[in-house]
Amino acid sequence: xxxxxxxxxxxxxxxxxxxxxxxxxxxxxxxxxxxxxxxxxxxxxxxxxxxxxxxxxxxxxxxxxxxxxxxxxxxxxxxxxxxxxxxxxxxxxxxxxxxxxxxxxxxxxxxxxxxxxxxxxxxxxxxxxxxxxxxxxxxxxxxxxxxxxxxxxxxxxxxxxxxxxxxxxxxxxxxxxxxxxxxxxxxxxxxxxxxxxxxxxxxxxxxxxxxxxxxxxxxxxxxxxxxxxxxxxxxxxxxx
Amino acid sequence: xxxxxxxxxxxxxxxxxxxxxxxxxxxxxxxxxxxxxxxxxxxxxxxxxxxxxxxxxxxxxxxxxxxxxxxxxxxxxxxxxxxxxxxxxxxxxxxxxxxxxxxxxxxxxxxxxxxxxxxxxxxxxxxxxxxxxxxxxxxxxxxxxxxxxxxxxxxxxxxxxxxxxxxxxxxxxxxxxxxxxxxxxxxxxxxxxxxxxxxxxxxxxxxxxxxxxxxxxxxxxxxxxxx
Lengths: 240, 227
Hints:
The complex is a heterodimer of chains A (240) and B (227). Chain A is an alpha+beta fold. Chain A is 27% helix and 30% strand. Chain A has one domain (20-235): GHMP Kinase, N-terminal domain (Ribosomal Protein S5, domain 2). Chain A contains 4 helices and 12 strands, in the order ββββββαβαββαβββα. By secondary structure, chain B is of the alpha+beta class. Helices cover 23% and strands 32% of the residues of chain B. In chain B, strands 8-9-10-12-11 form a 5-stranded mixed beta barrel. A 4-stranded mixed sheet of chain B has the order 1-6-7-3, with no helix packed on it. A 3-stranded antiparallel sheet of chain B has the order 2-5-4, with no helix packed on it. Chain B is flat and about 60 Å long. The two termini of chain B are 31 Å apart. The chains are: A alpha+beta (240), B alpha+beta (227). Chains A and B meet through strand 5 and helix 4 of A and loops of B.
């Protein structure tokens, strides 16, 4: 992947630098159940993002003192491969991945029916193999498919998507140049059934109108992602 | 199971019904609406609804026969891995008939790594799974071969009125014990056991196939003639 400097204009003749319209998403492909060892897994390609998610559980909690007597413990680990970015990423957890692990857990917690499995743990691992902006949304989307693939009871699938502001215009699903040099970023995840928002972060500044526009755009993006998630699971298990 | 074919495939969060009916596994209620909570096949009857899982861990039920592996000893019993979210507890008195339950006696009776056929006796409200060796047929399984398959495929492996498993048993002439927790123990001539293992692997991959029993029978006979 070539490193691109800051462009002079982000939107030329109504089209973005990669040829998309402002409200158009990158292509998303999801494959469920790609790994044999974990209980559930998913592989996801979202534009230039390549993500592998796996899920174990419910299983015994180690260390024991973390177990809760009324519900299962949900643990999420987000990790970027050293080769996932232009300059080598120093392997291991850091401030950023610890934060994303936490928000991923909080995004998934409202849907996973943890009360059915007290004293157990559900472990979710997200590995970013290639990053191209919006990896936290990618990770949450893949993790949710992996949990469903593991047969763990959940209220709904969780799709995630980001909207942002580049060159003064609100756009859906930014790619790396827009993400690096853009003005604002708004990743969200929703529960499609109820429309509840389980993740909402904001980086940069929006006016009130811009925020509302970006939020609606991202919600529509999430709904599209949800269709892809459903199709991925149907494809794997031969649904009608 | 042939009646599975044609059942609706549902995903978590999918609306199933708005009527008030009895709820089984894999569904949840919010307000008056009933939704699926797991991925699987919908079993909607007049007054009962559930989702048959097609993937997932074994969930213990009382009276299930399970094949367990002894992890180690507890204070007066054994800790047994039953391939579920919770480990099974086998009480010392349920297996050895003595007053003295010292650690040496427990280890000698069932050393770590032993494979046992047992049944689920009780599941406490605190989710402790007590297993028992008092039931008919419960014993230590020595030798043989242990196979793991997805626990949700076990009903298909057994078949209607155990048609599938009894066919395999009679065709390959070896002992096959199927645990509800997805573990299968096979004992007999190694060549014949290998054929049975292959057959079980095919069943696991093609649970939805119509006429599977006949197909498997054909494969077993073909393989047996090659010996």
